[in-house]
Each structure stands twice: as C-alpha cells, then as structure tokens.
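Worked example

This section walks through a single chain of length 254. The input is the sequence exactly as stored; nothing has been trimmed or padded.
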Amino acid sequence: MARKRIVAGNWKMNKSLEESQALITEIRGMVRDEHRGQSKVVLFPTFLAIPSATRLLEGTGIGLGAQNCHWEESGAYTGELSASMLQRVGAQYVLVGHSERRQYFGETNETCAQKIKSVIRQGMTAVYCVGETLSQREDKSFFAVIEKQISEGLFGLDRKEFGQVVIAYEPVWAIGTGLNASPSQAEEIHAHIRRLVAHQYSQEIADDTSILYGGSVKPDNAQELFMCPNIDGGLIGGASLKARDFIDIAKALR
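Given that input, the structure is written out below as tokens.
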C-alpha cells in the first residue's frame, strides 16, 4: 500500500466562526476547481468551527481534524474535549504533541502517547508532531531528541494501531519564524524517522507511514521540499490561513 500524500492546514487559535466558515468555503471551491493531484487536503480549524466545517466539507473529500484532545473518555477535566466527542461531531484527524502544546501546556511524550491511544480507539488518525529546538539543533542532539519523541510517543502501539498514525516533523526553530529547514535537513530527519519505524515494526510499515514536514512552508519553497523522497507532504501553519497560498502549496504536492 502506497503511503498517503497529505497537505494539512493548522489554523491554531485564529479565525472566528464566521471567518472560519468563509475560509472553508473558499478553500473548498479552490480544491474543486484547481486541485488535480492525488494528495489529501486536511483542515484543522478551531474546536468552535468543527461542527459547521463538517457540514461544509461533506462530499468534498477534504479531511477535517481537531488541534488537540484529552486522553480520557470523560471526567472532571474542565475545558477539555475527549476524542470521542470530537469524532461524534465529524473530526477524522487529531493533532497530538505540537511544539506549542509541549511548550505552553506542558505536554510530554507520555501524555502524547495516551492521547494517541485515545484517538485511535475512536477510529481517527493521530497526527503526531515531533521536532527539535534551536539549541538541540546547534548542539547536535537532535537525532536523539527525535528518537526519544518517536519511541516514547508511538512505540507502545501495535502494528495495527500504528497504521492510524501520521508523523509530522516540525523543527521548533522554524515554526512561525520565517526560517525553514533546508530540503536536505528536512529529508535527513524524515529518513531517520522512517528508519526508526522500520527497526521497531518493519520496513513495509515504515514505507507505508506518511511523514509530513512543517515549519514556515510557503508556496515558493513547497515544491523543493515535497520533491524529497521521504517527505510526504506538509503541516502548514500561517500559510494555511490564506486560501490562495494554501492551495498553491497543496498543488505543489504531486
């Protein structure tokens, strides 16, 4: 089975409900009129927009995801949403372990592993984010950092469960900074991640695993990144808030 090619837009804490509906409608039309590739387009709006996004995206083939979830099914967790709640309003994907969640909300590899299990139990796909900081890049510890994030976050899954995981490599130093890893830097980490998966599971499973790049991806650098053999698409931040830029990035993934 060939691995999926995916371009996903993480809107973070942006866009009101009305603005989200307008942007979804615009993207929906552009995908219909312009997107001719085999790649999958996925949107991650705010929680507030998910129910209406479900209706707006019905029958379009565009995927819909949530930016976070709690690992428990229910309970005294004020302000949280469970994976089952998200699944029931139409989410098909859930982001887990984004560097902003790790930095600002204390998420760890262990809590990410719990969330991933919860997402998979609901039949959704977990998009697990990993990446090193600038200091870790500079002190050459980034391979070990990535290996720890992958092993502690994912390797408690069995082979079947792992089939419901997409990995997103996002160097922390490139998120929202305007900097981005060079294609060779990104490819090096993507290949390393695929080797880790092959060692833990099998080469076949590694070859079927989608690994996305995220970190200041723009229309003018997307094609060069997406040409790398181990980069299967992108997790797009700021550029996903502009329909034209986002669709041009999606069109760069053939």
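What to look for: The first strand starts at residue 6 and ends at 10.
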